Amino acid sequence: MSGQGGMMQGGMMCPMCGQMMKGGMMQGMMGGGMMAQMHKMPTPQMLLSLADELKLDEEQVKSIQKIGFNLQKEVIRKNADRSVAEVELNELMSQDEINLEQAQRKIQQIASLEGELKIAHIKASIDAKKVLTNEQRAELKEMPKKKSVMQQPQKPAMPMGSSTEQEMHHQ
Questions:
Q1: What is the rounded CA–CA span in Å between residue 131 and residue 156?
Q2: What is the pLDDT of residues 31-77, one digit of tens each?
Q3: What whole-number distance in Å separates Cα of residue 3 and Cα of residue 97?
Q4: Which of 20, 66, 92, 161 has the highest CB neighbour number within 10 Å of its CB?
């Protein structure tokens, strides 16, 4: 392993740090709306999964679905742009003489796309939440409290470090 970049078994080699990155620099962390969930913002998908509990009407469901589909399309486009930029960075880094200015521009482009992805997830969460009535927002806010109280006694005891526990923390 040379650390100069290149493709390896389902992931990309980070030319800057010599480590493997599966699916790009931030896909694992930011994919599927994890950004919004990390900040306790309701994703469109989450709201749709709670449609019965929140008593969403048909029009609300359609509006939230549209927000979700638009987010999916934007994420696909940004991820594709980011993936191309990562390949271009790897190409720059594989040169015998690395042009620092070009590499910096490419890294800034990748960082900008990652920021745009975060903003897209946050915007979709805000837009989806705007579809809710004040009562539905209040109910949504209370749901984590209700779930944690309901789930506490049902939570099976697991030894620290078990593979099942680790999998739950990575979902």
A1: 36
A2: 445 444 445 788 999 999 999 999 999 999 999 999 999 999 999 99
A3: 15
A4: 92
